[in-house]
Design a protein that fits this description.
The complex is a heterodimer of chains A (about 150) and B (about 90). Chain A is an all-alpha fold and about 150 residues long. Helices cover about 65% and strands about 0% of the residues of chain A. Chain A has 5 helices and no strands. In chain A, helix 1 crosses helix 5 and helix 2 crosses helix 3. Chain A is elongated and about 55 Å long. Chain B is mostly helical and about 90 residues long. Chain B has 5 helices and no strands. In chain B, helix 2 packs parallel to helix 4. The termini of chain B are far apart. Classes of the chains: A mainly alpha (about 150), B mainly alpha (about 90).
């Protein structure tokens, strides 16, 4: 059953993610100095993490609110690097949280990118898609790490 | 502490979200969470699904962190170029 005519094609997301992520990793390795201190390894780990979320968001594109939220945050970070972030105009959103579950719904909103601006229905839909894509991301990263470990 | 705001608030809402819609979506979410899927086939409360969803997302985020650390360490040590082709092939097949 498709929602709004959008079918979930995890395989194409997986391939796009893998291509973009591996490309970034190889670029990092090319620029890596021969001796890597613990500090450098830690900094690179942070960059790898950002590359992973960036790659999966690019693979999904603007089709989903959560991926748009990640892409938006990345562009803002690049644009305002080192500067104070401007206050965004927040729209009033009717949340429609199930009664008694507001704190749990709020925790979920904090975990899903862009969740704070979603009503309950969208939040649940986006969460389902986000979880599927996150699992794909983790599986691909595991495969890559296993191969490099050999 | 029970504030029943959501049910009574109808002002200016163009989209009327029914409880059924939410129950439906919660059920779909339930299928994705390994914790719940493996344990019980019975109905789980929406509250429990939300809780387990949060836990599951947090654990996935932690896995990404750990894998990033691992990859960063591996990038420092490995320098074989043939590994790349093998990885890409296995991922794309």
């Amino acid at each position: 059953m498709t929602q709004k005519g959008v079918t979930l094609n995890t395989n194409s997301h997986k391939i796009k993610f893998a291509r973009s992520f591996i490309r970034t990793l190889l670029k990092m390795r090319k620029n890596a100095p021969s001796s890597s201190s613990i500090e450098e390894i830690r900094k690179r780990s942070q960059r790898i993490k950002i590359a992973a979320y960036s790659s999966i968001a690019h693979a999904v594109g603007s089709r989903r609110a959560w991926s748009r939220a990640i892409l938006f945050k990345l562009r803002n970070r690049a644009r305002h690097h080192g500067m104070m972030r401007r206050r965004s105009m927040k729209k009033r959103v009717v949340k429609n949280d199930p009664p008694g579950d507001q704190s749990k719904a709020n925790k979920l909103r904090q975990l899903v990118p862009g969740g704070k601006a979603m009503d309950m229905c969208s939040l649940l839909e986006e969460t389902a898609h986000y979880i599927r894509c996150l699992s794909t991301q983790v599986k691909v990263m595991q495969t890559i790490a296993d191969h490099f470990s050999k | 502490m029970s504030s029943r705001r959501s049910r009574s608030r109808q002002s200016g809402v163009s989209r009327n979200i029914t409880d059924d819609q939410i129950t439906d979506l919660v059920a779909k979410l339930q299928q994705l969470i390994p914790e719940i899927r493996n344990r019980s086939s019975d109905k789980v409360s929406a509250s429990k699904v939300l809780q387990e969803t949060c836990n599951y997302i947090r654990s996935l985020h932690r896995e990404v962190d750990d894998l990033s650390d691992r990859l960063s360490n591996l990038l420092a040590t490995t320098d074989s170029d043939s590994a790349q082709a093998a990885i890409i092939r296995s991922l794309l097949m």
